[in-house]
Amino acid sequence: MSETADTLFSHVKPEQTGYVSGGLRDFFLYRDLGVAAATQGKVIAHLVKANMAPEKGTGWHRHEAEFQIVIMLKGWARFMYDDQETLVEAGDCVHQRPGIKHFLFDYSPDMEYLEIVSPADFKTIDVEPVCPIPDPTPWN
């Protein structure tokens, strides 16, 4: 396999990048894994973890992306994908097909997942509600 000049080798250790706020959702923290820079924006990979108890969730939305997966590393999260409630637990992998309408509405305090999306600068578009959303589980 030949090497290409448009991507770089990347190796990021946990102590090199910390969790920060300021990502897509203010109730999550994000840790950049260096993939967006290494791929010149073709792909982003980051760790996402709970920062605050779920109150309103993400709201109904879709992404303008070619590819997106979520791999749950710790805890759990409940999503609506179209009108289907889906519990995603540690060890699960979800491929979110392009354009699927979804809503992350509940998650555990220890929730942490790996998200990989292409392109790195994917857009999030709010959409009309598909169906009612169950209440989140209160944190004690």
From TrEMBL:
It comes from Roseateles toxinivorans. GO terms for molecular function: isomerase activity. Pfam families: Cupin_2. Keywords: Isomerase. Gene3D superfamilies: Jelly Rolls. It comes from the Bacteria. SUPFAM superfamilies: RmlC-like cupins. The keyword Transport does not apply. This is Mannose-6-phosphate isomerase-like protein (Cupin superfamily). Residues 51-103 form the Cupin type-2 domain.
